[in-house]
Amino acid sequence: MATAPTPVSHPSSPVPSLAAVPTPAHEPSTRWLLGILLVVALLPRLVVFFLNENLYGDAVVRTELAERWLREPHLITAYGDGAYQFGPLHLYLVGVALSVFDREVAGRVVSLLFGVLSVVPLFALTRRLFGWREGVVAGLAFAAWGMHLQFSTTAGSEAVSLFFMLAAFALYAEAVDENRFAPLFQAALMLNLACALRYDAWMYIPLLCVALVFSSQDKVAALTRAVGFGLACLPFPLLWMQGNELMHGDPFFPVKAVEDFHRNWVLSSAGSGAAIGWRVQQLFFWPGVALLTLSPGVALLGMVGMVKAWKARPDTRWLVAAAVVPTAYFTFRAVVLLNFVPLGRFTVTQLVVLPVFVAFGFAALVGSKGEGLRKAVVGVTAVLAVALPVAMGLFTFHAEGRLQDSLRPVSPTSTNPVPVMRVADFVKEQVAAKGGAVALDDDPSYMDLQVAFFSGLPEERIARVRWDTFRKRLAEARPEVLVRFDQGSLVKDPGVKLEGRTLTLDGVGYEEVEGFIAPLHVYRRRE
């Protein structure tokens, strides 16, 4: 991601310059600028790090799988080899962190490290395309990005994957700008690592290859670069496909498993009818998440900048396409095909492109206007960029309600439902601390995973209805506490009988404990 000392000259553009004052003859020290941006990105993430809890992004499942890998380290080669629908690289990283940190912190530390470091390739990318001041603006907008604050402080893979995607973009821009192979192969390496983290990174291989074909007037050189880059991007995808072919008989087994999950999810969310309302909601999902999480000022300026850059700066079209094409693809699947459910965390690689174009969009809109208007736009944009995530974070922090639940996945703060944590704390204090065991019902919204994770109990001391080892664990651990969910499947078990506040499981009686809120119920075994 090395960058030239000064921005490369580009064809004259009708877009006004960013500022009314002339550009300084000498750029400030890049190390100094990056140091400031790293501190600015770190500070808000440190604040929410001590407030947040693992909830979304399969954070607890990823941590538990990483614990299994750490107990038996090996090269994960397929879906059924320990990674399931997740990228194996993330499990390695969290597994290594688990050798140093507590399970509730390890994955979050990994996310924090890569989340903060992401400002480096973002600055390098923006600086190369537009200049150092534009790079600073992009870094500041990124530092305040509320949704990324959550991703950087919980144990999902979004922050880690985004670092490698930004690194790939920055190196790719360097390769195209300087017409060199070395940074292009480095970009391919970064993309391999991103593909080992999340499947949505795979689509960027053909997308960036096609962009390379149109990157130069010399078509032979452009095609040569595209073929070389494409081949360099294939090692991990090919090895992963081979592993799944050998284990499951299908090289695309993990992808199909994820697709089936989303297809069933759509049926449960949108129904089988026309689902007009659901389709309309998904149509505006990506721009809606941008406006809500990046703030209206940053999002709108970034969108304007992308439109203007497409016309005035052909050298940036590949980056615009990197944001627009995946957005259009996922939107088409959600709106027309009805086989995909978009989530805020799925938008991160596309939305991170918007800060790159914020300063360019500002120049296009008000660069030639009066100083008062320019200052007003900057002020309003800056205030909204900070105030909106702060307000959303406070609104959703340990708060229950339909609106809070809707905003929590994209809020800076991620906290589990209070009733869930109350049960988890009880099990941790009354069972785990005394060397006991628990029987755990399943929950349609997967809150049983949260109870198990935060209880602090090892796997062998939890008999989970969700697992096919439920009866085996039940016989071995003889749990003295049982946790039931109102919508769980435990009561449907032929060995279970529920009468008032008494539950009998395989002939063993349990009495309900006072002080817990539905849909959770806690029972203690009769002596």
TrEMBL record:
Name of one Pfam family that matches: PMT_2
Example GO biological process: lipopolysaccharide biosynthetic process
Chief site of localization: membrane
Region (Disordered): 1-21
Domain of life: Bacteria
The entry's keywords: Cell membrane, Glycosyltransferase, Membrane, Transferase, Transmembrane, Transmembrane helix
Coiled-coil blocks: none
GO CC aspect terms: plasma membrane
Membrane topology (UniProt): Multi-pass membrane protein
Keyword Cell membrane: yes
GO molecular function: pentosyltransferase activity
Protein localization: Cell membrane
Domain Glycosyltransferase RgtA/B/C/D-like: 88-222
Transmembrane segments: 32-51, 105-124, 136-153, 159-176, 188-214, 220-240, 284-306, 318-341, 347-366, 378-399
Protein name, UniProt field: Glycosyltransferase RgtA/B/C/D-like domain-containing protein
Top-level taxonomy: Bacteria, Pseudomonadati, Myxococcota, Myxococcia, Myxococcales
